[in-house]
Task: structure prediction
Amino acid sequence: MTMRIGIGYDSHRLVPDRKLILGGTEIPFEKGLAGHSDADVLSHAIIDAIIGALGEGDIGRHFPDTDSKWKDASSIMLLESIIKMAANKGFSIEWVDAVVILEKPKLLPHIASIKTNIARAGIPADCINIKAKTNEGMGFTGRGEGIAAQAVCTLKAI
Ligand code: MG
Result:
């Protein structure tokens, strides 16, 4: 098989007194995402898409939240290690498309910075598409209780 596809989804709760980190970029906002790591929901969705395409289970198997090693871990670093794992298994990341679902804040001003971070982790900026959607006020994302992200990726055999 020369081509693989993977899907990833994640969500985290918005709480006071936490930094909001999305795709490795700290975004000024009154709340941040709760989690064992830095709770970077976008990086987690991309990681799970890649792990899925590799047939390697899910993010919890590789970075268990019961392990203090991953407490406050930088998720963009975790992404980098998963991209290396893909290379070790003979795959490069061909394309990533992701959507972040959040009511606030506006993500558009930060997308270039996020793409730069993901490129540094090992996926070229011209192989990544990141977009943001509100949920039109509906559900937990619409009420601002949390942020969700979805990602798909394709891998090709090196
Ligand atoms: Mg997560």
Q: What stands out?
A: The domain at 3-157 is CATH 3.30.1330.50 (60s Ribosomal Protein L30; Chain: A;). The longest strand covers residues 3-15.
